[in-house]
Amino acid sequence: MTGAARLDTGRRPALPAARAWETSDPYAAALRSGRGPLFLRRADGWLLPLDVERWCARADTVDLEVLDRCEGAVLDVGCGPGRLVAELASRGRTVLGIDVSEAAVTRTVRLGGHSLRRSVFEPLPGEGRWDTVLLMDGNVGIGGDPHALLTRVAALLAPGGLLIAETAPVEVDERAHVQVVDATDGHAAGGSFPWARIGTRALLRRAGAAGWRGAGQWTSGERRFVALRSSRSASSSAEPPNSAAVTSSQRVRKPSADSPVTPA
């Protein structure tokens, strides 16, 4: 990070109902067990499988290729059960995972990573100072509005910072309201929420319109990725340096909607 990683432990708003999938019982149960099958279900019944087993395993070869491209301090948005955060931490990198799921945060901490239970659209540590932001495993769909997410990520990155996003395996650009479904019993917990699926070409088109610069695209193991450079100038506002640095000495034992969690 261009300056120490920072952590504001002040109170934050409660989790909105729109985050139903991350806080749903099927999702939490799948992360605790490390197994699916779990799906996102559209209103028309179409199902998108969620790769729970891969997310809960160690970082694989494709993941490692992505992590090798990361620069400086890394913010993993929608870190899930924490495989990427744990791998970067094991390399001695400054890294923070954020996720709105308590089960995801708890598992990340158990693996030895730093994690914070918070949405990307809420105030975050080190705003305007992160060197790399990750949007893996379909997380470019968070909020159902890629333009809004790209704008938010640009504000989190340092000038010239790097965004690495995993795009859909097919060329698609769609938004929908979905629910998380446990395929073993068809149970869906919580209300529907907005989600997006976006392929490489569509993401590059949207990013270009938002002022991002392309920094690469590649396919590995049937997964597709895009790297983008922030065009935010150094004169843009960043988080004021008035909050405590993220260090291994910080300890919060019980994860909550507004609490930082680091390994004990």
Automatic annotation (TrEMBL):
Region annotation Disordered: where it falls in the sequence: 229-264
Highest rank taxon of the organism: Bacteria
Keyword Transcription regulation: no
Name this protein carries in UniProt: Class I SAM-dependent methyltransferase
Pfam family, one: Methyltransf_23
Bias kind Low complexity: ranges: 229-245
InterPro entries given in the database record: SAM-dependent_MTases_sf
GO molecular function: methyltransferase activity
Entry keyword set: Methyltransferase, Transferase
Transmembrane segments: none
GO biological process annotation, one example: methylation
